[in-house]
């Protein structure tokens, strides 16, 4: 994300609890946004003359408290901080396609679909997005919400399915084969670099108070994704065994985003093929 912003001439200030290689080249402020008083965050942003904020935070916790902290408390503190600034920055908030809740195959998820989330992850993500939308529609902030599908590519978090699979494959060989249980599910995945380009375009867009879906607009089987990742790892055939497994995710067994609005409103479309995304998932692990 930071690299895409820097390429467009933005001076990047990364704000997070901890730094790492992904932000090593940029100005960094170690701060827990969900914990600090909004006035402190406002002073930080004002002091650095911040004109745009991208919120890509999200928790992979397992408890309601953890998810509310990452998805609701943090967003509320951020919005309160922006409201205190004389020159309020543009905000792009990255939400999740899971905010819509489970949908039946072969439905394509459009932005007009009423959200009906069923998991704690999806409910808290939706609550955070709705805080942003309410503030934008009330004129308190200039903001756009991007609802992203499942993300892959470089630095895919180890907490995700593909990140976990990549970690297991690194320990696999013919003498120590890995057995994976893969659900009979089809989901929309987008490379994080394509998502970053959507964020750049969203920052420049005059649109506010709206939701825009970001995905490939394709539903790919989880088995095909695992096969692409195994091919990128160049594993011998007998190093990986795949078995059928249960649906176990923060979404359902089917996601397919309608990305037409992203093209019309932002001039965006995905460019990176899944095979290339899986190569990057393998070659550039999470920090």
From TrEMBL:
<dbReference type="Pfam" id="PF01370">
    <property type="entry name" value="Epimerase"/>
</dbReference>
<protein>
    <submittedName>
        <fullName>NAD-dependent epimerase/dehydratase family protein</fullName>
    </submittedName>
</protein>
<feature type="domain" description="NAD-dependent epimerase/dehydratase">
    <location>
        <begin position="3"/>
        <end position="215"/>
    </location>
</feature>
<dbReference type="InterPro" id="IPR001509">
    <property type="entry name" value="Epimerase_deHydtase"/>
</dbReference>
<comment type="similarity">
    <text>Belongs to the NAD(P)-dependent epimerase/dehydratase family.</text>
</comment>
<dbReference type="InterPro" id="IPR036291">
    <property type="entry name" value="NAD(P)-bd_dom_sf"/>
</dbReference>
């Amino acid at each position: 994300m930071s690299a895409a912003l820097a390429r467009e001439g933005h001076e990047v200030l990364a704000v997070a609890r901890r730094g790492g290689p992904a932000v090593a080249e940029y100005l960094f402020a170690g701060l827990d946004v969900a914990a600090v008083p909004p006035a402190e965050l406002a002073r930080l942003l004002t002091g650095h003359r911040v004109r745009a904020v991208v919120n890509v935070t999200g928790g992979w916790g397992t408890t309601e408290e953890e998810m509310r902290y990452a998805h609701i408390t943090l967003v509320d503190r951020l919005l309160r901080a922006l409201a205190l600034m004389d020159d309020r920055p543009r905000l792009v908030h990255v939400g999740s396609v899971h905010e819509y809740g489970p949908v039946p195959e072969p439905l394509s998820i459009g932005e007009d679909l009423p959200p009906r989330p069923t998991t704690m992850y999806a409910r808290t993500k939706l609550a955070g997005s709705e805080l942003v939308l309410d503030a934008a529609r009330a004129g308190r902030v200039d903001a756009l919400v991007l609802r992203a599908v499942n993300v892959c590519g470089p630095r895919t978090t180890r907490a995700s399915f593909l990140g976990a699979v990549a970690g297991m494959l690194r320990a696999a060989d013919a003498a120590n084969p890995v057995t994976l249980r893969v659900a009979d599910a089809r989901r929309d995945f987008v490379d994080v670099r394509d998502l970053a380009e959507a964020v750049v375009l969203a920052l420049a867009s005059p649109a506010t108070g709206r939701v825009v879906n970001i995905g490939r607009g394709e539903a790919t089987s989880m088995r095909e994704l695992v096969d692409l990742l195994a091919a990128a790892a160049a594993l011998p055939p007998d190093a990986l065994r795949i078995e059928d497994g249960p649906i176990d995710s923060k979404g359902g067994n089917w996601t397919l985003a309608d990305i037409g609005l992203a093209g019309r409103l932002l001039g965006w479309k995905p460019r990176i093929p899944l095979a290339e995304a899986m190569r990057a998932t393998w070659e550039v692990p999470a920090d």
